[in-house]
Amino acid sequence: MKLETCAYSGYKIHPGHGKRVIRTDGKVQIFLSAKCQKGSGMKRNPRDVPWTVLYRRKHKKGIHADEGQQKKRIKRTVHATSRPVADMTVEALLAQRNQKPEFRKQQREAAIKAAKEAVRAKKEETKRKAVKMTKAAQQPKVKTAKQPKAPKAQIAVKR
Q1: pLDDT 10s digit of each residue in the chain, 159 long?
Q2: How far apart are CA 29 and CA 8, in angstroms?
Q3: N or C end of the chain: which has fewer CB within 10 A?
Q4: Considering only CA atoms, which of 42, 39, 33, 43 is closest in space to residue 11?
Q5: CA gap 135, 40 in Å, rounded
Q6: Whole-angstrom Cα distance, residue 99 to residue 144?
Q7: Nearest 5°: phi and psi at 85?
Q8: CATH code of domain 4-63
Q9: What are the respective helix, strand and coil percentages of the chain, to the nearest 5?
């Protein structure tokens, strides 16, 4: 919901209320009521009309009385704190940032070597399992002879 403000009185204008007046120079003025429009038409200064917001501000009436006074300022101090980022402390981040390229290259090579070793170990494990399976398959299985089933007795039925 968009609230407009009256060009003369300074009060809020809710949707569906007020009147828009477009001047010859193209400027749009929105008035709350005919009273505001007539006051503006008579070129009356809203600072001299007691019921307008501008008058109330000028003469410090109601809630506008404490507008001119400065609020008590709170001094905000910034505290530098070091929080871990992605499970890494600030010291660890700085240490990683200050590493030499040679050291990083060695670390990378060591990680690649470890990954290759893990792949080799996995392949060897699968080979061992395959050998065990072939040995188990090579052992002759002793089959027991099936006993022949006795034929069923047939009964003749007349239809």
Answers
A1: 899 999 999 999 999 999 999 999 999 999 999 999 999 999 999 999 999 999 999 998 988 777 767 778 888 888 887 777 788 888 888 888 888 889 889 999 999 999 999 999 999 999 988 888 887 777 666 677 778 777 777 777 776
A2: 9
A3: C
A4: 33
A5: 106
A6: 72
A7: -115, 120
A8: 2.30.170.20
A9: 40, 10, 50
Two tokens, residue 58:
């000028």
Where on the phi/psi map is residue 137: left (φ > 0), alpha (ψ -120 to 50), or beta? alpha
Alpha-helix runs per DSSP H in the chain = 34-41, 53-58, 90-97, 101-138
Q: Which residues pair with 12 in a beta bridge?
A: 5
* Spatial CA neighbour of 50 closest among 13, 7, 10: 10
Please, which residues bridge with residue 28 across strands? 22
Q: Reduced to 3 states, what is the DSSP secondary structure of residue 53?
A: helix
153: left (phi over 0), alpha (psi -120 to 50) or beta: beta
Locus of tokens 């399992």: 129
Tokens encoding 141: 């299985």
Residue type, 37: Q
